[in-house]
Structures are given as structure tokens and as C-alpha cells.
Amino acid sequence: MRNYYLGIDIGGTKTAISLADNSCRIMDSSFIQNIKSEDFSPVQSNIFRAVDELFRRNGLSSEDLLSLGISCPGPLDLEKGLIVYVATTGWRNYPIVDEFKKKYGIPVFLENDCNCAAFAELSNGAGRGCNSIVYITVSTGVGCGICINGALFNGEFGSAGELGHVCVDPAGKECSCGGRGCLQLYSSGTSMAAIAAERSKTEDSFLSGKDNITAHDVETAVRKGDKLALKVWDDAMDKLGIAASIIFLLINPGVIVFGGGVSNAWDLMESKILTSMKRHVYSDLHSKIKIRQAALGKVIGTTGAILLAKQYKGL
Ligand SMILES: [Zn+2]
Q1: Do 112 and 73 meet the contact criterion of CB atoms below 8 Å apart?
Q2: Distance 173 CA to ligand 1 centre (A)
Q3: 171 alpha carbon to ligand 1 midpoint, in Å?
């Protein structure tokens, strides 16, 4: 009997795969490294193999599945079921929904990774009990997923939540999107690392002379009390707070949830983001501001994909 769901969370370098029962409770997961390829086909074959292995481990087959959900970075064409372009990997115009349908013969639901994560946190994570939440991911870039009145909000043309390209400094740096002063030029892990690397050439810092500085290096330097790293970190958190205050005033979410690699340093983020938000939100509403770290960890994407696949009625 068909009684199970499969969730696949495809990232730039890794893919998570989860099996869930018909109440969407995750029973088992696999985490694999993606094959490095600008063509998505070999990456997909590798995912198929990992799914087979997960089936074997649990004594199941695709015959037991109700449906399958895929979480993927975008932009995606949700109507046609296509990966349009993934900048970090070079994947282009790939008919992922048709390919997975062909392989498993069940309904396949595709959604943007931030949206899957947002829906997962609303239903099973840090947003449980709320009707409306916003999820912000801070990692290579800055992204966001919006849930309003219990449902995912995609916007009129499917690209709601482009928080990384919201302007936080009109006189700021030029962005690849054509804009200026976009949030992710300051607050993404990649940008924090690049800014710290550049400034450490001329300013005294633990990071001076170090090669290939990462966001994690910046975090470590902050913990050691490095002044330059702290300035870069504080500016990134201040600007995240500006963006979060705009979200808060516009949507009044029950909670704003922060995920992504950088958010592992939540103890260094929470109070700084809150302070910034309170500077930009009028005081009557301060008691309503709630921010939290994402709760679902490595299965955030597969959880969201499974929950959305369960709701999906299409074929
Ligand atoms: Zn931009």
C-alpha cells in the first residue's frame, strides 16, 4: 500500500534525502555529496542511487510512495518543473520534475529551497503555533521564505522573498543584480568573509595574512575578540536587523526564523539583530518582535518538501 513520502533537498554541494510515513514523520535520511558537474544528469543519477539505497535499508520501493517533494535552489520554473539556473553549480534548464516522475511514477512537487525551509519551520519547527512566519537563511547568499495564514506565499509571479536583494544602503556597492547596496553584499557568509579578507590587508587583525578566509574564520575571530572581525560581523547583523524590521512592519510575522550556515553562531547574532530591529520598529511593537534560530537542522529542506508534497494534488 502507498503509505510513504520521499523528500529530496538538493543543495549546491550536498543533497539530503528523507523517507517519511503518512503523517510526514521522518523515518530515515541519507546525506550525500553531489557529483561536481554543470550537467545535472550525473548529479541526478547519484541521487537515484542514494534513494535506492534508502529504500533497501527500509524494505521499501517506489511502489510504496504516495508522492515526492523536491527542494532546490533557484530560480526554478515551478509551472514547467524546471531548474532554470543555479549560479553556484551551473545547472541550467533541467526538467527535474519530469525526470523524477519518469523514474518513480508518482506525483512530484518542486519548490524553492528557502520556501521549503520556511514551510517546514512553520509546521514542525521554530514557527509551530504561528500562522505567519518569515524564514531567513544566511549562508552563501541571503534568502527568505514567507508563510502567511498557514500557507506558503509565492507572490504573483513566484519570486517573493528575494530578501538578499533588498537595498540596505542606497549609496552602497554595486550588486550583480544591477542594484546597489543589496543586503547579501554585507550579511551573507560569503560577503562577510570577503569584506574581512579585504580589510585585513590594511587593518590589524587575527585574519591578516590568512588565505581563503571563510565566514567561520570571521566567527572564530569574533569569539577571540578581534576588532576588525567584530566590526564586519556587527555591520552584517545590523543590516540583517534592518531587513528583518521591514519584514516585521510589513507582515507582522509571529516569529522570524534564521537558518543557514551562519546561523549556527546564533549566540553571536540574536541580540545584535534584535537591537537593530528595535531601532527601526516603533516602541509599541517591541514586545511583539520574536526571532529564533531554525529548529530542524539537516532535515529542514526534506521536511518542507515532504509536507508540501503531501498537500500537492497535481500529477
Ligand atoms: Zn542585488
Answers
A1: yes
A2: 9
A3: 13
Location of C-alpha cell 518543473: 81
Q: How far is the CA of 163 from the centre of ligand 1 (A)?
A: 9
pLDDT bracket for residue 314 (50, 70, 90): low
| Residue 158: band (very low, low, confident or very high) from pLDDT cuts 50, 70, 90 | confident
CA of 306 from ligand 1 middle (Å) equals: 31
**Residue 125 · residue 294 · CB < 8 Å:** yes
Residues 6+ apart with CB under 8 A from 215: 189, 190, 192, 193, 261, 262
CA–CA separation, 245 vs 238, rounded Å? 10
126-295 fold: Nucleotidyltransferase; domain 5 (3.30.420)
Question: Can you give the residue ranges of every domain in the chain?
Answer: 4-113+298-311, 126-295
What's the gap in Å between 250 CA and the centre of ligand 1?
A: 21
Q: From ligand 1's centre to the CA of 297, what distance in Å?
A: 27
Give distance in angstroms: CA of 280 to centre of ligand 1: 22
Listed residue (100, 9, 104, 96) closest to 60, CA to CA: 104
Quote the ligand 1 centre to 164 CA distance (angstroms): 7
pLDDT in tens, 27-80: 999 999 999 999 999 999 999 999 999 999 999 999 999 999 999 998 999 999
Q: Which residues keep their CB under 5 angstroms from ion ligand 1?
A: 165, 175, 177, 179, 182
| Per-residue pLDDT tens over the stretch 165-217 | 999 999 999 999 999 999 999 999 999 999 999 999 999 999 999 999 999 99
Q: What is the CATH number of domain 4-113+298-311?
A: 3.30.420.40
Per-residue pLDDT tens over the stretch 77-95: 999 999 999 988 999 999 9
Assess whether the region 4-113+298-311 and the region 126-295 belong to the same CATH fold. Answer: yes
